[in-house]
Each structure stands twice: as structure tokens, then as C-alpha cells.
Amino acid sequence: MSDLETIGLEAVDKFITTWNSRDAAAWAGSLQFPHVRPSPFGPINVAETAEDYIAAVDYNKVIETGWDHSEWDYKHVLHMSPRKIHVAGQWTRYTASGESILSTPIVYVCTLIDGNWGIQSRFGSDYADEDIDTSGFATRGLNLVTDFINNYNLGNRDACAELLNYPHFTISPGELGRTDAASDFTVNAGASMRLESLLAVQTGQHSMNIALELGMPDGGVRQGVVNVTNRDGHLGIQAWSLLDPNEAGE
Question: What's the pTM value of the predicted model, to 2 decimals?
Fold first, then answer.
């Protein structure tokens, strides 16, 4: 296991361990800020600081469901670079007697800021039981991302803007790019990205996470995770996170 892979898995382990501690300040210490968790439901809140995040934590609401602790069902690293790591995982909440309450698949965007690693964003995909067929939703999501790349390369701003959900986020270490409306979206003229690979990593009934690799005009590559949601009846890309696997370390 590489050093970066170990760092990514340790970052998400800290997230679960501090969550189980019922200490909101400790839990916030596993995160980076500004922090966002895109979702297909309700308002998408951005915590600009740890203090903002801590103020919004309500353990009592979760404890009232019978929750005692959470455990990993799985976790593995998707992509790595010296400043950003993508980790796919799924946790389940349990009662004290071991009865499962809730499972959630998520891709964690881990970033390095001021020498410290933490989770800057969590791309959720709602849980779907094995007896629920999500293949149709997965196909629609994969086609949507393909259409976005093709239209972006052609400079079709309006077509690209229609394929997003808002607010739309891009994740960088210590920064969240945010687009609040289709009228605010822009494209870079002359883009020529090649879609080298596309894979549905986690698929629910209302949201999914897609891993991709893009060939860039300069011959380099970018690896990324795309969060696709069905929000208010509109299927669109809610958030992106891209990294350069060949980025030079410090």
C-alpha cells in the first residue's frame, strides 16, 4: 500500500472515529474548510469554518433513532495525488445491539491544507438495496457526463449549463468553486478533453458517483469524481473533483 493510499484511508477512519466520539469539535477536526456535502434533497449548506460546522451538529437527533455507533462496510482509494485523494466508502449506523439503522455510500474528497489532511467534501449517493434495480439511473448518469464533456469541448455553454444542478460545486484544496445559476456558468474556449474512462462507482435511486479519467490537451491526465443528482426532478451534475495523478509532490 502506498503512502498516499494509507493517508486517504486514515483520513476517512478519523472521520468515523471522531463521529463515534459524539464530540462535534473532534469530528470537525477530521474535515477541511470550506466544507460542503452535496445532496439531491433540501438545501446544500456550506460550512465556511469549523465553528460554523460545529454549531450545526445535532447528535441528539441521531441518537433518538437508536444510533450507538457507525462502522465501515467498505472503503478504498479511487485516485491519488500529493494534495488530493478520492476515497469511496460506505458506512452503516448501528444500535447498541448491532441492528443496522442506515447505510450511506459516499466518495470522500480528502485534501492537504497547511500540512494537514482532512475531508473537504462528501459526495453522497443514497443507499439502494440489492433488490432495487439502479441500472437505468446509472446509464442516464453516465450518458449525462459524456454529453457534458462533448458539449464542453464544442463550447456549447447553454447545453452544458442545462446538464448541471445548482448550486454546482467544484472542489479544490482550501477552495470551493460555486455556481448558483445556469446564467453564471462559463466554458473555457478551445477545450479538448478526451474521455478515457467512465465508471459508476456508487448508484442510488436519486444520486450517484462516477469516476472518470480525462486526457488533457497538453498530454496530461486528470482523474475525477462526479456527483450526479436527481434534484427537483432534474438530472444534473451537482459537483466535481479533479486531480492530477502525476502532480509533483513537495
Answer: 0.96
